[in-house]
Amino acid sequence: MISTRERLIVALDISSSADALKIVSSLGDSVQTYKVGMQLYTAEGPKIVRDLISAGKSVFLDLKYHDIPNTVAATVREAAHLGVSMMTVHASGGTKMLRAAAEAARSANSPPKILAVTVLTSMDENDLHEIGVSGQPVDQVLKLASIALAAGCDGIVSSAREVRNLRTSFGQSFLAITPGVRPAGAAHGDQARVVTPAEAIAAGATHIVVGRPITAALRPEAAIQSVLRELEGAETVAGSKAT
Q: What integer pLDDT is reported at residue 243 of this predicted model?
């Protein structure tokens, strides 16, 4: 059973480790897991991962690996050695790459979860057509998710708009991580397919990723409590429907 606090991943989409650690300190025990993406990792390197783990936090390393199988496997082993709890690979890398990533993770002393990115939440149907992918985003999400889960990945990263379809097609046994989540009333930013925390949980997401609505808020502590309350409400509704 995943607790409300465990469901929420806060994205540290900033460039300074000092600013990142200040946010972590201000949010205290309200947040357990933080996402380190390309911006922060490129600016600060693996030290920021070590600093977060030293502070007692879990790290979701979102670098979306996409390379030949041997390179991805070696990189996954290095990330596992850092102590990350989750990391992302691009599902479009194909079965061989995905299987290499999953096997490398499982060989670690503390295996991280391998999460396959399907279609970026900034992309819509026109964007997919531009790169030669026909159909709706959900069609591509389902196709890539099928490949990733068959290759041994632990979960899927996709918009909550597609999570319900994923659950219908593949069941409940995988993690479903939803970025592009915006609390009710928050600006959408550069996300094309957004949902609220409650909508994500109702659709079947196990985890949500929230960044700027929390980290850029005038009062991050208040923002985080608002999101947690929304998650708790969604869990209550989901639980009542299940019974």
A: 41
Quick one: fold of 4-242? TIM Barrel (3.20.20)
Dihedral of CA atoms 65, 97, 207, 180 in degrees, nearest 10, equals 50
Q: Using the Cα atoms of residue 87, residue 92, residue 93 and residue 95 in order, give the sign of their dihedral.
A: positive
Q: Give residue limits of the domains in the chain.
A: 4-242
Q: Token digits for 167? A: 């659950």
Look up the pTM and report it: 0.91
Torsion 208-96-168-129 (CA) sign? positive
Q: How many whole angstroms separate alpha carbon 130 and alpha carbon 151?
A: 28
Q: What digits encode the pLDDT tens for the residues 64-76?
A: 999 999 999 999 9
The tens digit of pLDDT for each residue in 168-177 reads 999 999 999 9
Nearest-5° Cα angle at 224, 176 to 215: 90
List residues with catalytic annotation. 64
Structure tokens at 191: 């996300």
